[in-house]
Design brief:
Order of helices and strands: HEHEEHHEEEEHEHHEEEHEEEHHEEEHEH
Number of helices: 12
Strand order of the largest sheet: 5-4-8-1-9-12-2-13
Shape: globular
Largest sheet: 8 strands, mixed
Number of strands: 18
Radius of gyration: 22 Å
Amino acid sequence: MKINVISIVLTLIMICGGLQAKGKKSPTNFIIILVDDMGYGDVGYMGAKDMLTPNIDKLATEGTYFTQGYVNCSVCGPSRAGLLSGRYPAKFGINGNFGPKSKKGFPLDQPMLQDKLKEVGYKTGCVGKWHFGLAKDTFKPWNRNYDFFYGFLAGGHDYFWADTSYNARKDNWPIHGSNGEILKYTKGDYLTNKFSEEAVRFIDENHDEPFFLYLAYNAVHYPWSATEECLDRVDEFYDYDLKYRRILAAMTLAVDDGVGDITEALKKYGIDENTAIFFLSDNGSPGNVAGKTKINTGEHFMSSTMGLRGFKGDTYEGGIRIPFCVKWPGQVSAGKRYNEPVISIDIMPTITDFLDIEEPATGYDGVNLLPFLNGENTHMPHNYAYWRYVDDYAYRKGDWKLTWNDQEKVLYMTNDKIEPKESIKPKLFNIKLDPYERHDLAKMYPEIYKELQQEFDAMDSKMPDAGLCPVPFNRKLPSEL
């Protein structure tokens, strides 16, 4: 009996120590709102003149937003893997998406953010898109330390209908609940709204305990579809000449409504001042609207990169630089713009360092952003940054960036320019002087070009072949360096 009492006391001390978080009187709640395929120029606070995003903009103005906010990969799956691990996902074998029929999943020996927060007594909720594998029960969210789940398991989903069987069309695969049960979905309900409702329900049920909510909208990802109500509302404010831009605006408005519902729920329970909210996209603008014949330019323009080169799937800025902000009362300044590069892999170490939670044995590649955002540290948060999506890669050091892309995505889709991969050379850009990556400086600065290539190859050669994704054809082996 004595041993049990001591155990209980020690557990309570550990929990209280973590939840007090460096002298905080009230435990801090954490919410990550992740949108899917939102372009750098698709929210008001980033300069969009035809998007209705008052609640998202309010998050940015009541917190700090990043002009050089990056994700660690230019497509959904590895981007999310980095976000929830604090590591470059190539370090544990993920450099591409898990397809709906993949037999693989997020490695069980790689801790995720919810794992660490559960250790110190947090209630954990996941709403929306999972995309970390579904072939085995061990890959699924209800077996990955989430107390609450409402969402789907694959990479995309229809907005107005979900079946109750996996024999259905892929985009209509089932919606699951917290215990993995398949839920009946009312045909005609709009999935973005349902995700917002379930996120608020999680807050309703857990507002009196410290909680972590990971809200992963599938909006504004394909299939492009919006409610008539949201289409009517955006039409009240803007005249759209472009069909797909109008649809995207309505889809974005539905997300913005959800952000507003969440912030109102926090105020209702008096916990808005001790809740940190991170808002970001999983990658940049998609390059195509519908197949190779309709690309995201001209009359089919839909999502804005704000002039940045490239799209989703590219390691150019348009594929990896995204809307990214954080509202954290008492810790992060309000109304501030932060101009140094930050990456989505910084979120997990920022949270766990704040709570004095020991980092996982696997370590972090991200950093705690708080000292940089509050002025204690005036240096750049990162000495370098690494990106890998199958064969595409990039490496940034200071203002210099080396990038290799198999094809220009839009040119590839229009068949205007198809090059053999072996003939493509990396490009070198100075992001400070040329953020739109228009001027390749590889021949002008060969020493910098060589330095970045060597550093990238040295790092990339150590990435494991875990059998999860294809091995890049241009990855050098240690023996080749």
